[in-house]
Design goal:
The protein is mainly alpha-helical. The chain has one domain. The chain is 55% helix and 0% strand. The protein is elongated and about 65 Å long. The termini are far apart.
């Protein structure tokens, strides 16, 4: 289970990606996150991730909220192996929704990037602007 991938999927679905299947995937994630948090008493308190997920639903484009959710889910998964398994299973199903639908998750990482960067999903009838080579 990769908290960043899970968070990117959740943000995409919260933003309307995937249509009805995306909505159902988001509801499935809420169900997993809302199950009781099984944390040993001797470990420090940690967020269940529910508040962060609800906040991301309200503002799916907010990277700070996405980061908070990623941290909360990662911590909870580290403290609760059963949750980690359920979230991993959700992640695999959500990837299938993403791969079958119009969900696009673009990521740039691993270095310094300069200049123009264009990220897109499916592009139909692309035409190079006049005066530029494609």
């Amino acid at each position: 289970m990769d908290p960043m991938t899970v968070t990117a999927l959740l943000a995409a679905f919260a933003g309307g990606a995937g249509g009805e299947a995306g909505k159902q995937a988001l509801q499935g994630a809420l169900k997993v996150v809302r199950r009781p948090f099984q944390r040993p008493a001797h470990l420090p308190a940690a967020s269940s991730g529910e508040a962060e997920l609800v906040a991301l639903e309200q503002a799916p484009g907010d990277p700070a909220l996405a980061q908070q959710l990623s941290i909360a889910l990662g911590m909870r998964a580290a403290l609760d192996p059963e949750f980690a398994g359920e979230l991993s299973a959700w992640e695999e199903g959500a990837k299938q929704v993403r791969d079958k639908g119009d969900v696009v998750i673009n990521t740039i990482s691993g270095g310094d990037f300069n200049g123009v960067t264009i990220q897109a999903g499916r592009v139909n009838n692309f035409q190079t602007p006049p005066g530029r080579q494609g």
